Amino acid sequence: MIKPFMQGLLAYRHAHHLVWKEGMWKQLIIPGLLSMLYFPLVIGGLFGGTFLGVQELSTHISEKWLPNEVAEWISWGLSFIVGLLAIYLAFLLYRSVVMIIYAPFIGMISETAEEKFHGTKGPGFSIGGMAYDIYRGSMVSVSMLIISLMLTVLCWLLWLLPIVGAAIYFVGMFFLQAFFAGAGFMDPVLERRRLGIRASLAHSHRHKWHALGNGTGFVLMMFIPVIGWFLAPPYGIIAAAVSGVDTLYDGKTLKR
User: Fold this and answer.
1) Is residue 97 within 8 Å of residue 233, measured between CB atoms?
2) 212, 176 in Cβ contact below 8 A?
3) 251 has pLDDT over 50
4) For the chain, how long is the longest CA-to-CA vector?
5) Closest Cα to residue 44, out of 83, 3, 9, 98?
6) Which of 86, 94, 95 shows the shortest CA–CA distance to 44?
7) pLDDT greater than 70 at residue 256
8) Cα gap 237→182, rounded to integer Å
9) pTM here?
């Protein structure tokens, strides 16, 4: 349990080396910028939209049932609460949305990292293969998004337990996001071995502690504003390419 978790987590050291010592940073500029823009655009849009919507609704209610001053206070309070919920939703969706955004790049980044670290190559480049990689990556991300949202709804039931339920909820949500991130980052390695989507998800489940370790590094980096948003997804992809190959050989580390 601890060993595969640490293998997935410590692979970020190799990812850092590949990015800055092996020149992979050039491949990260465009996808990194797209990832970095997610929070300003999505949070700004969600917060602004919900804020204005609640303001309009409160104004409509105040005209019929409440005094203006009371309605104004209620309006600001509801707008703030709904805005915070919108920001929370944006954080929950970040991993899945960014994985979909990364679909055109994730296969290329993962394959380059595996070739540089392990010396193994994937199938030759083709337009059809690239189109399938994008389709497959999007489908895996959407599938994981649906599963993670279902589990998130179940986790919300923990709020029925006072104090303890909230603590369990936040810990559980952290590891839930980490596991699905690690599984998504590992998928390109499995796709190059011609594993189907169902087989890929089953493989990630069998090696859940490894996927969890890889995803934990991603989630921790994500908490670093701006720099973390830029680097967390590509570092996660590269780390999974470096260490994910090991899971195909029952944990026996491949030597360069």
Assistant:
1) no
2) no
3) no
4) 73
5) 83
6) 86
7) no
8) 8
9) 0.74
Decide if 18 contacts 113 (C-beta within 8 A).
Answer: yes
Determine the Cα–Cα distance for residues 170 and 155; give it in Å rounded to an integer. 9
Q: Please state, in angstroms and rounded to a whole number, the distance separating the CA atoms of residues 211 and 251.
A: 13
Lowest mean pLDDT among 90-104, 122-136, 184-198: 122-136
For 121, phi then psi, to 5°, come to -115, 150
SS3 state at 58: helix
User: What single-letter DSSP state applies at residue 23?
Assistant: S
CA angle, residues 165, 169, 170, in degrees to nearest 5: 125
220-250: buried (b, 16+ CB within 10 Å) or exposed (e) per residue?
ebbeeeeebbbbbbbbbbbbbbbbbbbbeee
- Residue 15 has a CB neighbour count (10 Å cut-off) of 26
Give the position of tokens 């590992």: 186
DSSP, collapsed to helix, strand or coil, labels residue 1 as coil
